[in-house]
Amino acid sequence: MAQTSMDKSKDKEICDAPRRPNKNTSTEKGAKEAPELQAAPYLHLVLAKAPINNRDVDAQQSADSGEKKRNLVKNKIDESNDRPKKKKKRKLKLNTCDEELVFTKKVKTHTRPTRVEPNGKIEKTKKKSKIDINDPNEIKQRCSLLKNKMLERLSGSQFRFLNEKLYKTTSDEAYKFFTEDPSLYQVYHNGYQIQMAKWPVKPLDIIVKEIKSRSKSLVVADFGCGDASLAARVTNTVHSFDLVALNDRVTECDMAHVPLEDRSVDIAVFCLSLMGTNFIDYLVEANRVLKFNGLLKIAEIKARFKSTEIFTKIIQRLGFKLLNKDESHKMFVYFNLKKLNGITKGGLPKLKLKPCVYKKR
């Protein structure tokens, strides 16, 4: 039976269609030569239908981030290793004297140290001189400097103790304390001079100037005179009183009881000397020795006053009248008063001032 043209075309398509290889009949040579060709037509279908494992994806991401962190740490370590290391200071100790000297060898830098001036300009500082450890004279000099510094610190601590003693005891107790060891008063006076050197304006200079402007015949009583500097700077007759006589011009006594006659002086001076818990007795004693219309000059540390008005009111109850008061100075207040009448020691007003205690530096 003759085949039609449609049947012939079907047979041709069947013949041309790719045949499925038979496992039994395929040779090893064909399997080795084209394995990719066999799987290629179906590979995209398998990948499309394969389920995604989230755990594998997270593990891969964490591994990548961990690798990045390790690389960053490694880069920082490499950078720190590349930087030049600072040399440690080398110390040499010499026991050639009582004090121990320590010499340090500093690391040299390319830039010189600078400082900023108040006007805004930058100024290069001078290099510190180096110590020659082979020069015995220089070593002795350094030893003496160290000793002096230690002595200054020791004298500073002694001054603070003695200063507090004067402010927190009565004049009678302080007088007995310093008469037992007068050298302690010299230590106090040296510390006082060091403190005074730091003041921009010294109250004694103002008092000296005022006394020089008056008659030379006026008699002056200096309560708490120290080394009697006032008597040395004016030509007037000056009676100088203090707890210890540092020189021949000073009369040693308790300032609540000075060896002068009643109404025998024209000017009484208290220059930073209202010390002791009974300083009101000093002012009563000044009233006793002053003539009527005699002048009382008081210079005292500003920080001791809660109110200068209260102070002047109580002073005026002791028989004085305030002429003027100067609070323009940074460190002290200056009072000028005049004696109007006498006063008895009974029923004295109470008056307190803050003790001036220096803090440890």
From TrEMBL:
Keywords, in A-Z order: Chromatin regulator, Methyltransferase, Nucleus, Repressor, rRNA processing, S-adenosyl-L-methionine, Transcription, Transcription regulation, Transferase
UniProt keyword annotation of Chaperone present: no
Class of enzymatic activity (EC top level): transferase
An annotated GO cellular component: rDNA heterochromatin
Any one GO MF annotation of this record: methyltransferase activity
Record's compositionally biased regions (Basic and acidic residues): 7-19, 65-83
Superkingdom per UniProt: Eukaryota
EC number(s) from the headed UniProt entry: 2.1.1.-
Pfam family, one: Methyltransf_8
InterPro entries per the UniProt record, alphabetical: RRP8, RRP8_N, SAM-dependent_MTases_sf
GO BP field: cellular response to glucose starvation; methylation; rDNA heterochromatin formation; regulation of transcription by glucose; rRNA processing
Principal localisation: nucleus
Places the protein is found: Nucleus, Nucleolus
Region named Disordered: 1-38, 54-92
Function: Probable methyltransferase required to silence rDNA.
Protein family: Belongs to the methyltransferase superfamily. RRP8 family.
Protein name in UniProt: Ribosomal RNA-processing protein 8
Native species: Strigamia maritima
